[in-house]
User: Fold this.
Amino acid sequence: MRKELSILIIVILGVFLALIAVDLTFGAPDNSAMDDYFIRNGQEQAATNNIVTTVVFDYRGFDTLGESTVLFTAVIGVALMYRKLVKGDADENE
Amino acid sequence: MRMSKIVRFSADVLFGAILIFGFYIILHGHLTPGGGFQGGAVVATGAALVIVAYSYEEVLHMIKKAGLMLQESAGLVMFAGVALIALGLGTTFFFNYLANSGLLFGMSVPFGPNPGELNTGGVLPLMNIAVGIEVWGGLAIVILYMLSGISKAEEA
Assistant:
């Protein structure tokens, strides 16, 4: 019973996802003004061949600053969480 | 826990190659796919390899936690600092003031497909390096802390 139920769920989910994938269209976005701007001006304004890096670090640099801060905060959190576990270590109180 | 001599020797040999590959991804972030985050993760993988192959006590002598923490903080400060210099020059935050300037990383790029030149990109390579330093320090210290938790749990 359990096995048949899981097979049924997998089939339903698979058909559902396949139907969505059939309807997807690639390469023709509705609003492409922003993409065209980046592709046309990115190489001259940022002097960079890699448009993705240009967007991530130049046009959307503030977003990347937030990303780095999130990573920094996550590492601080892990360090705090494991601090009590490793009390015996010599270099712990630095 | 310590792996066999074969694993440790392989880790020693592969460590340098992984590090060089990671630095390559970071430095060529403005030319090829990849960048600071991806390259930093690759470098942290090298640290993870050493941590897996050797025992926790041995790793503590090779990799210092304080040093990794310093690298992580320095990377974030360098990233924000490079962006803040633009404010001092009278432009907006995160303005690419080195692009097309002829200084460090200041060569121009023609429009359209071209082979690419390492000395381009303005502040983008500097930011890639900063983010790379931050990511490898942060990920390596996370792995190190988690391993310390495992070694304590095994003793108990």
